[in-house]
Amino acid sequence: SKGQTGETSKPGTVKAEDLAPWPRLFVEEDFIDFGEVPFGKPLTYTFYLKNLGAQPLTVNGTPEVKILEGC
């Protein structure tokens, strides 16, 4: 994943025999905690997606992003 520090890591290599016989979406991280963020400060994050299936994977539409506010 690519975090606030700009460091990049990718999931390990998958062997063909370990693939599902259908498309299978793998999201390396599905929850990101930015900690305290000043109001109005823009944030960005890159999600890495990988198909762990043997069939092509198509992502249609716009991904849903939820913003959770803490106290």
Quick structural overview:
Helices cover 0% and strands 8% of the residues.
Descriptive report:
By secondary structure, this protein is largely without helices or strands. 0% of the residues lie in helices and 8% in strands. The chain contains no helices and two strands. It has strands at residues 25-27, 49-51. A two-stranded antiparallel ribbon has the order 1-2. The chain is elongated and about 45 Å long. The two termini are 27 Å apart. The model is unreliable at 1-9 (pLDDT under 50).
Q: How many β-strand stretches?
A: 2
Q: Tell me, what's the shape? A: elongated
Strand/helix succession: EE
Model regions low in confidence, pLDDT < 50 over at least 5 residues: 1-9
Mean pLDDT, to the nearest integer, reads: 77
Q: Helical percent range?
A: under 10%
| Arrangement of strands in the largest sheet | 1-2
List the helices and strands and how they pair.
Layout: E1 25-27, E2 49-51
Antiparallel strand pairs: 1-2
